[in-house]
## 1
Amino acid sequence: MIFDPILDLFRGKAITIPPMDGALRPNTELDDASVLATMTAPDALAWHQGRLIASSGADLVAVGIGVIASYPAPISALTTSNSGALAVALDPGELLIDGQAVALPEGLRCITALAFGPDGALWLANGSTRHQPSGWVADLMEKNATGSVWRLDSGTFTQIAGGLAFPFGLLPDGKGVTVSESWRHQLIRLEAGRQTPILRQLPGYPARLTPAPNGGAWLALFAPRNRLIEFVLQETHFRFDMMAEVARENWIAPALSSGRSFLEPLQCGGIKTLGIHKAWSPSRSYGMVVRLGADMTPQSSYHSRANGNRHGTTCALEVGGRLYVAAKGGDCVLSLDAGL
């Protein structure tokens, strides 16, 4: 893959997808995991006042208890601070901290992730200037890179970086922040005014990052990469015709879940044989959570493969030796042993 850019000049652009191997070797851990709670499209997770909370559409749910707050629009991100402050972002581009609306600067209207730093400052990932978080698939298929990362400290917003391809996860520390950049399939480091890739060529689209209590981090990947979708991303005229003429849920594009409609692409041939869905077949949806070491290299992973149904994993949170996973495409929150 190192020589692909040079070879592309002679053969055309090569479509190469990194294999799932080593620490990313497929397994069935997510499909075998216990369901802690079922709810519609759980997305972001946080630990607040001694309990696990999750976003489910416009509802904020205390897992095992029920809905504790409802908002006028779907929740796009949430986080809590060490002091107990609760920050919630809404899909139309709104931010509330402990229930109070915060005025946002121009261009900050697509909040995909929130995280408090050790100093109490709030970091914000702005996925796009052209779409709301719920419009992520359109942002990908338009091949946009208008995202940014911001920091809110003492009432002042500062843009830390721009030109990002849908930042979707934040992991701040005392020196800077690690960011998952979905459309470029990588993690980057923003520190001292520099932007440095630290984990590239992921086999899927990375979502949120959360700290692991004993160092490192948990990374959720919400959908897989596959050759057909990568090919469509190279075909500009076809892609825009598809977006104009085909219903969004049936685009040849990543999805949070699949197999629910006969109109979806990727259903036959190498997908099913004798009515059995192959676990290793190409898929528009997948579930994966990766344990990253202190150097941000993958150490182990949990999967829900092509034939599974715990797909669209957007967030994983470790508390007290348990790993909680939001499977947005599977409509459930999972509970696993964090010591795989």
Note: The chain has five helices and 26 strands.
## 2
Amino acid sequence: MPRVFMLHAITRDRHDFADLAGRLEGAEALPLDHIGHGDAPRGPLYRVPDYATAIAPSMAQGDVIFGHSLGGLVALYLAGKRPGFLRAVVLEDPPLFDSRMPRMADSPYLKGFAALKALMGRHPDYGEADWARRVAEWPSGHGDLTIKQAMGDDGVARRAMQIAKFDRKALDAPMDGTLNDGFDVFNAIRSCQCPVHILAGVEAQGSALSPADLTLLALERNVTVTSIASEGHYIHEMCPDVCLAALRPALS
């Protein structure tokens, strides 16, 4: 039975994929925590190669990786470093270009990271209950809905737990432009020798990929792109069936 590793976004953890993993058929779902997230150990550095180095020992020949956001960057890096090793990678709205300077400087994500780091610095002793009161009214990334409105009490509790366990030092790399040090998107795509499928949301709703980005990526021989008109950056939360459909060809 093929295995699907699920790699989450920055500030999140493996619990982001509870619903998606529970629906996956014909494969073993293996959601992981990145270093500095969830129950994983802290890391000295938090760049794409550092996240990948921590995860690589868990991988085996023929595995598939489903990566959301930061997880998509890590998935593509791993595929490029070990040509022919992975069966396929499915990337959910990966910030392939927004995570780099100078585009990161103009990204709304940069402001969000800075605000979160400042808040965590002011409240180093906050526990999950404290964060739950905060995150309930945060934007969900789904239209104008708050996290509580979009994800309910369970979603609020999950986000509070994720923030409470998160190492705020992991925000430094995306903020100072070093997240992708040692990682070149197109070199990775051309080296990996496996299918790369990209799920992209709508830029106006918060997608990390522009239409121009998608046009450029689709020129690569092993890249296919599916655009999701109803969502932005967090496709798996509201459209798990779309993610499962993208995984089926990778598993066949």
Note: Strands lie at 3-7, 28-32, 64-68, 88-92, 196-200, 223-227.
## 3
Amino acid sequence: MGGVQGVINSLLISIPICRLELAGRHWRVLRAIRHWPFYAVFLAKIGLYLILIVAATEFTRMLMQPINPQPLGFDVIFFQIVVYAGIMSLLVNAVIEVGRLLGFGVLRDLVTGRYHRPRREERVFLLIDMKDSTAAADVSTTWRTTGS
């Protein structure tokens, strides 16, 4: 029964967090929070995640009470679940936030050590100077802003 309880608990924790991370950027409250400093957003999300973890863990234990009788409340098993889930949410949240700041491609290169082992690369830069391109871009910009 412990496996079933673990699956239910992980779904009750992960589904709202995924919803918050993926669709939450469209919510007005979370868009306002994005203007906070990085550490404040990070700490607010960790606090919200911990509240969700505690609530989901207790709800799962109450739900499984008829099948798997165990004491409710803050016992050793509860604290183990909360500590493990808290550490995992901290790590995942750190990866997501740093990935959003740097870009996930840059984060991947940083983690895989690309910047620690420099390589010589040959690259080609192409500059094109089209005749009257500045005037054409200016007319195009004016047309879009006036709505004509």
Note: Helices lie at 2-23, 28-33, 38-63, 76-102, 104-112, 133-146.
## 4
Amino acid sequence: MTDPSTTPPGSDRRALRIGLTGPIGCGKSTVAGWLAERGARVIDADRVARDVLEPGRPAFDAVVAAFGDGVVGADGALDRPALAARVFDDPEALARLEAIVHPAVRPAILEELRAADEAGVPIVVIEAIKLVEGGLARVCDEVWLVACGPDEQRRRLLGRGMAGEDAERRIRSQGDLATRLAPAATRLVDTDGPAEAVRQRVLAVLEAALEARSGRET
């Protein structure tokens, strides 16, 4: 069976793979939803991470061993807020957590890529804030950096019900993430502005990506 991590980019044997990444609150999930309307299968790395951290899974056991029983809730599942609090302002602890989670998430996503190829799905989207750091950008044909201005980012986070102080902390914790990710990006998707205008912008970017792939295959 073909390993989806080694199938050449642009190969007509598989789907066009688009990696979506970018700062929190800039609209990655919204962009993914619009691509799904165009027939894409969306692989949400956060959802995969939740799956691999279910009780009884090796990554769950490794996280508890690394961070202690204080990150386990009364129901026996991972207490995600408690774990987030442990790593939020501690780069060393965050790196320790990512060293457990990323190696568990990657094979699960590769398996979903394989299933999509076997099903003949035309486009696969991997939505992941750690797309580049987790090594998933290397299995994508394109990496789209989804970004917006800081005022819009803040407004969207507050619109989710996030407290103002929490929103500011999360924005600060990422620093200038968009600038750091820019060298790895194939395309920049600017999500500032009215939703319909942004949607049309996204669909135009998709058309450009499909045309670019068609050109590589001729």
Note: The longest strand covers residues 16-21.
